[in-house]
Structures are given as structure tokens and as C-alpha cells.
């Protein structure tokens, strides 16, 4: 499991509070860091899912170590209800979701997630379906720009999309290094020091894997599965994901905005909230953790509990 450092591990365990005899789900197995810690913390049963077949294969040793207690399933967030039902599980005492891309995916150049090392322009978590290269070389300029704005919050999306179309006309864009070079040439230098290719790579990765759609479906599925007193703990790493988590938890806990007094809906009795927030404000990693693991710096943890 070298290369993988679970973010905010102490805070995740404290918020999840795994208990003896409980049944839990690690919805993003990745390198197995959370899974191992949960199983060490209490004599419980843990199901772990990941859409990346490489992650499931890596988990074999951990599954052997916790034989009978750790069960690995290859699945997306949105499929968790059905996959757990196949395993005879209809209720959970807790769910952990660590959103975004894993350290293994970022660090393996052949997966094409990062511009830090040159590799094929891929970014597919499941190694199936259209790749980032397919989008970059096949989409019209307007569609590319839309992806860059919506999923990368790239202010210079039009310029980047135009540069991509110009360069792909000369030769298909098939590597991470070439795409990064094209993007950097189309955007001004960021005064914060952020690499100019960061937002575009994030946007393409989210689009290739429908990550935000999966987050929405995963949050809904996790809440459906929680037993009374069950807890959902989510760690998000960028504003688009965290916004979805914050809104979903506010809605579930009855903290979503109330209608205007001029709106007829305000006259209707509001149903009692089925959940309550464990984290009125998102928890953030401490300075020591960020210094040791810079990838933790943007993390935000939110927790929710189903009412007893």
C-alpha cells in the first residue's frame, strides 16, 4: 500500500465511530487505508467497493488478512444498493466516501490521470468507455469549453478549447505531456503558482468518469442504506464535490433554505428531518498532516447521522 496515505484518517474514524458487530461500507476502497483502519478499530464487518479493477486486485492481501470480515466488490457509487443486496446486505451502520482520484491513479503514468509524468491520455477509472483522448480529439470546441468551465472552473476555457482544436488538426493529442503543454500555452500564469494545466485535467477526468453524477447517486444510495444511528462520512477535495455533499446533507437534515413567506410552499408543514449533521462546519486537516501530505490540503470532511 505504499504511495497511499489516507487523508484525515483520525477524523474519519472519530466521525464514523465503528462499533463491534457493525456492518460498514468503504465506498472508495482505493489503497485500503480507511478499510484497514476501520477493521482494526472494531471487530466489525466491512464491505468495500471501487470502480477501478486495479484497486480491487490490490485489495486481495488485505482481504486475506481480514478473512471473513472484509468483502471487496467492484462497483460504482450508484450501484452500491444493488451490489450489497446481492451480498445479502440491506442496512449499514456507516458509510465512508473518499471522493476523487486516488494516489495510485495519479502516480501511475500509464493511467494518464496526471501531467506530472508523461503517459497515454486516458483517465478512465474502469479502463472502459471513452477516454480523455477521445474527448480531446473528438468533441466540438463548444462542448470542450463547456466541460472545462463546468468541471474545471477554468476561466480561459474558450482559449484552451480553441488551442486544442488547432493542435489536434496538426496531429491527434494522445499524451498527457502534449495536452499539458497546449493548455499551459493557452492560459496566463496563475499568481498562486497552480500549474496552468490543473483545472483542465480535473475537468476532463470528471467528464470521462461522470464523477459528479456518481457522487450524487452515491450520496442518495448511502443515505438509503443507513440504519437508524448509522453515519455517513464524506471527504471531498474540490469545491464542486464538496458543494454537492454540503447541499445533500443540508437537505437531508432539514437545514436547506426555507421558501419565501410569499411562496405558497411556505404554508406546507415541513417533514421531520430524517438525519442530523455531525459537522455543522466542514472539518479540515491539521497543519501537521498537510505538511506531511500536501495532497490533504484541500480536503473537507462532512458527517451525517440517521435519526434513531
Fold blueprint:
Elements: H1 9-16, E1 23-26, H2 33-41, E2 45-50, H3 53-58, H4 60-65, E3 70-74, H5 80-86, E4 92-98, H6 103-107, H7 132-138, H8 141-152, H9 157-170, H10 176-186, H11 198-209, H12 211-225, E5 226-236, H13 239-252, E6 275-277, H14 287-292, E7 300-306
Parallel strand pairs: 1-2, 1-4, 2-3, 4-5
Antiparallel strand pairs: 5-7, 6-7
Helix pairs in contact: 8-9, 8-11, 9-10, 12-13
Brief summary of the model shown:
The chain has 14 helices and seven strands.
> Termini distance?
37 Å
Shape: globular
Structural class call reads alpha/beta
Report the count of strand segments. Answer: 7
Low-pLDDT segments: 265-271
Strand content: 5-15%
Largest sheet: 7 strands, mixed
Going across the biggest sheet, name each strand in turn: 3-2-1-4-5-7-6
Radius of gyration using CA atoms only: 21 Å
Count helical runs.
14
**Helix/strand order:** HEHEHHEHEHHHHHHHEHEHE
**Percent helix:** 40-55%
- Mean pLDDT score, rounded? 89
Describe this structure in words.
There is one protein chain. This protein has helices spanning 9-16, 33-41, 53-58, 60-65, 80-86, 103-107, 132-138, 141-152, 157-170, 176-186, 198-209, 211-225, 239-252, 287-292, and strands at 23-26, 45-50, 70-74, 92-98, 226-236, 275-277, 300-306. With 308 residues, the protein is α/β, with parallel strands linked by helices. Helix 2 links the parallel strand 1 (23-26) and strand 2. The protein contains 14 helices and 7 strands. Strands 3-2-1-4-5-7-6 form a 7-stranded mixed beta sheet, sandwiched between helices. Helix 8 crosses helix 11 and helix 12 (211-225) packs parallel to helix 13 (239-252).
Amino acid at each position: 500500500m505504499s504511495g497511499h496515505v489516507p487523508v484525515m484518517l483520525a477524523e474519519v474514524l472519530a466521525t464514523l465511530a465503528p462499533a463491534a458487530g457493525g456492518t460498514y461500507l468503504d465506498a472508495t476502497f482505493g489503497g485500503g487505508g480507511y478499510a484497514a483502519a476501520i477493521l482494526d478499530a472494531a471487530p466489525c464487518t466491512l464491505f468495500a467497493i471501487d470502480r477501478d479493477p486495479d484497486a480491487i486486485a490490490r485489495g486481495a492481501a488485505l482481504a486475506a488478512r481480514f478473512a471473513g470480515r472484509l468483502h471487496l466488490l467492484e462497483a460504482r457509487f450508484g450501484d452500491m444498493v444493488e451490489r450489497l443486496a446481492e451480498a445479502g446486505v440491506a442496512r449499514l451502520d456507516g458509510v465512508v466516501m473518499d471522493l476523487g482520484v486516488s494516489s495510485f491513479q495519479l502516480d501511475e503514468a500509464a493511467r494518464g490521470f496526471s501531467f506530472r509524468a508523461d503517459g497515454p491520455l486516458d483517465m478512465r477509472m474502469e479502463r472502459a468507455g471513452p477516454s480523455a483522448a477521445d474527448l480531446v480529439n473528438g468533441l466540438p470546441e463548444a462542448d470542450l469549453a463547456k466541460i472545462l468551465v463546468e468541471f474545471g472552473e477554468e476561466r480561459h476555457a474558450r482559449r484552451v478549447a480553441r488551442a486544442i482544436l488547432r493542435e489536434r488538426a496538426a496531429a491527434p493529442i494522445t499524451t498527457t505531456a502534449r495536452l499539458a503543454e497546449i493548455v499551459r500555452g493557452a492560459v496566463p500564469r496563475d499568481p498562486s503558482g497552480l500549474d496552468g494545466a490543473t483545472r483542465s485535467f480535473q475537468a476532463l477526468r470528471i467528464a470521462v468518469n461522470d464523477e459528479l453524477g456518481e457522487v450524487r447517486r452515491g450520496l442518495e444510495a448511502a443515505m438509503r442504506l443507513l440504519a437508524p444511528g448509522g453515519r455517513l462520512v464524506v471527504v471531498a477535495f474540490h469545491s464542486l464535490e464538496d458543494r454537492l455533499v454540503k447541499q445533500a446533507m443540508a437537505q437531508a437534515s432539514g437545514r436547506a433554505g426555507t421558501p419565501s413567506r410569499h411562496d405558497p410552499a411556505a404554508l406546507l408543514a415541513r417533514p421531520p428531518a430524517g438525519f442530523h449533521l455531525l459537522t455543522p462546519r466542514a472539518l479540515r486537516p491539521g497543519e501537521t498532516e498537510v505538511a506531511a501530505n500536501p495532497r490533504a490540503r484541500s480536503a473537507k470532511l462532512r458527517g451525517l447521522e440517521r435519526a434513531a
